[in-house]
Amino acid sequence: GFAGRHLLALLPNAVAPPRAELDLLDAGAVRAAVRDASPAVVFHLAALASVGRSWEAPAETLTQNVAMTANLLEAVRLEAPEAAVVVVGSGEVYGPPERLPVDEATPLRPQNPYAVSKAACDLLAGQYADAFGMRIVRMRPFNHAGPGQSDEYVVGTLTRQVAEAEAAGHEEAVLRTGNPDSARDFTDVRDVARAYVAAASLDGGAFNVASGRAVTVREVIELVRAAARLPVRHEIEQARVRAHDVPEVRGSARRLREATGWEPEIPLERTVADALDDWRERLA
Predict the structure, then answer these.
(1) Residue from 183, 155, 171, 182 nearest 233 by CA
(2) Phi/psi zone of residue 204: left (φ > 0), alpha (ψ -120 to 50 degrees), beta?
(3) Residue-wise over 141-166: b if at least 16 C-beta within 10 A, else e?
(4) What share of the chain is helix, strand, coil (3-state, %, to 5)?
């Protein structure tokens, strides 16, 4: 997946069988894979990860994400009980923030089927740690962006629209968005991957991965404009405006910083520029 490929770049000796070789919904196959690998650390990033698609297939999203996590945790319990497990969840599990920044003490109040599935996986991981004494770290990343991201997400779709306009030889790029004043907490995916590696040394617990800064879509558009090779025009598309959009989301990664020293290093300007370059290469 998106974050997984950047994580692998930091772990040259990691074993990462593709989906065609290992179906995480097959409990026996997962157990055999863990037994054969005899891992010291397991990073679990696999999931049906689209919020939009989760509304279309809520039962599939919930059952498959929980089943994959259960199969993996059970396999580690039986075949590699000393291994550390980093279970990647989502900042979506908190839902609309009652206060900012959002920290790990905030109650889980997921507001879409994908977020419900991630909250369930988070709780399941915590239960396995409590019941079996396993070393399981639960990560709750907020929005992350960068090269390799799909166009289902804001930075991915904006940079793709510009790259397509450039490739087509258009005189300008027209960026269509929903509410441009929605503010979200963006971290570069490469910094997020570093956070996962750092978390593998911890004894357990839940940790946010966040920049601590909220950036509006309008500000992101300006960063895209600065990196583009042609003029950029912005239009609000009413079909993309959510009726109950949360004005601002911002997370606190203080717990992770104090535990590991992790800090985001890559500025959002570079994240956007690198994402645009990546789309240029993919569309070339």
Answers:
(1) 171
(2) left
(3) bbbbbbbbbeeebbbbbbbbbbbebb
(4) 45, 15, 35
pTM for this prediction:
0.96
What tens digit of pLDDT does each residue of 49-59 get? Answer: 999 899 999 99
Q: Rounded CA gap, 194 and 200, in Å?
A: 10
48 and 61 Cβ atoms separated by less than 8 Å: yes
Phi, psi of 28 (to 5 degrees): -65, -40
User: What are the tens digits of pLDDT across the range 183-192?
Assistant: 999 999 999 9
Instruction: Tell whether the model's pLDDT for residue 32 goes beyond 70.
Output: yes
Residue whose pair of structure tokens reads 């019941």 in the numeric block: 131
210-243 burial code (b ≥16 CB/10 A, e <16): bbbebbbbeebbebbbebbeeebebeeeeeeeee
Token couple for 43? 């990073």
Q: Do 210 and 251 touch, CB atoms closer than 8 A?
A: yes
For the cut 90, the answer to whether the pLDDT of residue 241 exceeds it is: no
Could you give the percent of the chain with pLDDT greater than 90? Answer: 93
Residues 245-266 pLDDT 10s: 789 999 999 999 999 999 999 9
**Residue in this structure with the two tokens 């049906």, named with its chain if needed:** 48
Instruction: For residues 77 and 130, give the distance between their C-alpha atoms in angstroms, rounded to a whole number.
Output: 12
- Those residues whose C-beta lies under 8 Å from the C-beta of residue 29, and which sit 6 or more positions away, are 22, 23
Beta strands in the chain (DSSP E): 41-44, 84-88, 135-141, 144-145, 173-177, 183-185, 187-188, 205-209, 214-216, 232-236
Show the DSSP H helices in 85-153 as ranges.
Answer: 113-132
